[in-house]
Design brief:
The chain has about 250 residues and is an alpha/beta fold. The protein folds into 2 domains: about 150 residues, TPP-binding domain (Rossmann fold), CATH 3.40.50; about 80 residues, SIR2/SIRT2 'Small Domain' (2-Layer Sandwich), CATH 3.30.1600.10. Helices cover about 35% and strands about 15% of the residues. The strands form 2 sheets. The protein has a 6-stranded parallel β-sheet with strand order 3-2-1-7-8-9, sandwiched between helices. Helix 9 links the parallel strand 7 and strand 8. Helix 5 runs parallel beside helix 10. The longest helix is centred in the first third of the chain and has 20 residues.
Length: about 250
């Protein structure tokens, strides 16, 4: 069986780099973004340029975040997250590169030094001007009194706050990309889990791993543009299959 072969590969690997996408968290009750019932079907995306120039767009954005972030905070890691956490405890996880912004990998037991939050995190807010980081729950609690336009509390700043995530039109953190490149170059196995592999540069890590002759395994419900590069491609539930192949 393919699962037995994949388990054998994982057992023999010592430096595994994993990329995770929204499909990793759907079984924890967090909606994905691009499916027919996904988040972008319900909310219109707001660009970083709009956030900086249009107060009404900022208020709309924070109302959307006020509706969605509390569910992320309450969500619990599923068995798939915990399986990756166990892989870290075994000393086999090199890096976890995640497109998710929900913090569930941290809750699932992966050490923070192994995680690269490529798209940031919804668990923090950040001042766009001075870059001071704020606790997201405290920021959400003040939204009504500031009419959904929270501002930095640093004296003389008054910059607008946004969740510490990568917005549309905003570049990814170059330090994160540097670590990700290192993670792919140094690994002896690359896993892409729950990602449509439709968003770059994260999707290109698969091609980089393949070009570097690293075995690639993709587990995702739907087809991806990179399935042809995978040594194995599965469509199983991640919460079910990961505890089996990572045990």
């Amino acid at each position: 069986m393919e699962t037995d072969k994949i388990k054998n590969i994982i057992e023999k690997s010592k430096k595994i780099t994993i990329l995770t996408g929204a499909g990793m968290s759907t079984e924890s009750g967090i909606a994905d973004y691009r499916s027919p019932a996904g988040i972008w079907e319900q909310y219109k995306a707001v660009t970083i340029q709009e956030l900086g120039s249009d107060i009404q767009k900022r208020k709309y954005y924070w109302r959307y975040k006020a509706e969605t972030i509390p569910g992320m905070i309450k969500a619990e890691p599923n068995a798939g997250h915990k399986a990756i956490g166990e892989l870290d405890k075994q000393g086999k996880l090199h890096y976890l590169l995640t497109q998710n912004i929900d913090g569930l990998h941290e809750k699932g037991g992966v050490s923070k030094e192994r995680i690269v939050n490529l798209h940031g995190t919804n668990l923090e807010a950040i001042c766009w001007s001075c870059k001071k980081v704020y606790d997201i729950e405290k920021t959400l609690a003040k939204l009504e009194e500031c009419d959904y336009d929270p501002r930095c509390e640093v004296e003389g700043c008054d910059g607008f706050l946004k969740p510490n995530t990568v917005s549309f039109g905003q570049n990814l953190n170059p330090d994160h990309l540097g670590i990700a490149g290192k993670a792919v170059a140094e690994c002896d196995l690359f896993l892409a889990l729950g990602s449509s592999l439709a968003v770059h540069p994260a999707a290109s890590f698969v091609e980089t791993a393949y070009s570097s002759q690293k075995p690639v395994i993709i587990i995702n419900r739907d087809p991806t543009p990179y399935d042809g590069l995978a040594l194995y491609k599965l469509t199983n539930s991640l919460a079910e299959i990961l505890p089996e192949i990572m045990a």
